[in-house]
DNA sequence: TTCTAATAGGATAATTTTGTCCGATTTAAG
DNA sequence: CTTAAATCGGACAAAATTATCCTATTAGAA
């Protein structure tokens, strides 16, 4: 569904948000450990999220990553997916035609757009703050 | 969403089904041309579909690929996706945890399963025969 | 029987994605 | 000022996916 990079990005942002709620800035090392991701690869993804103003990065000693309380309310999952995977999910045709195009649709188009729209709506309506809700009380997990 | 291989497989099977409706057995070359796919790669995919009894292959001169009328009614898109991409779509977690597991769900699990189930149902309920309907009358396309 | 056109299948190559390494830079503490 | 801990960023490496090439095999037709 999403690329590995995007999956790591979603998990990382969620973990940062959760810790930011407690006022804790977190390091790359801690993030990679808590979401079970390759550390150097995760660094690249966090750089990208930082450039897209999705997470805030602080360099130097005692630095790390954080997300402000107001940001994690406004920030939807779609922003993260857009930043990492681009619009392939929304624009791509289910059968792999160059782009999805209702004027010259592929045979699954009408059924596929419904599913894709549901996915899009879910991503656009789910905030990072919501993502943290179950995590804190141990109902949901970012690693097993 | 699907791998390139799977997209080619779905398009190829659909084209074969459509031609089989007219009693025409089609060659690899024709298929690749009509669905705009790399010929040798498409050959691999058709081998796989043939081994999984999704298409029938006939070797030698005047050979090619075909799908019987009864088969294209029974055959659902899910069979093709299963054969090529396996169960990653159904079993995979939206955030990339090892497997999707309701007992230790990720933060998007509850929302994600609904979308994934819709996709699964669509694939399981759409027959290859249905796929050919719009194609013959020029309402849908396998290439642009 | 021989020729020809087709799929089968193994080996290999190119590309993309994923992942690692290392030095540069930044920043706070001592 | 020096040191230590952290991100940044470029180069590189590994793995997976996509794509190509070539030979073997098959089977119909002349
Ligand atoms: S054209 Fe294929 S999904 Fe829209
Ligand atoms: S556990 Fe993540 S989608 Fe089910």
UniProtKB/TrEMBL annotation, chains A, B:
Entry superkingdom: Bacteria
PROSITE patterns, per database record: HTH_RRF2_2
Gene Ontology terms: cellular component: cytosol
Pfam families cross-referenced by the UniProt entry: Rrf2 (PF02082)
SUPFAM superfamilies: Winged helix' DNA-binding domain (SSF46785)
GO-annotated molecular function: DNA-binding transcription factor activity
UniProt xrefs under NCBIfam families: rrf2_super (TIGR00738)
Protein name: Rrf2 family transcriptional regulator
Organism name: Maribacter polysiphoniae
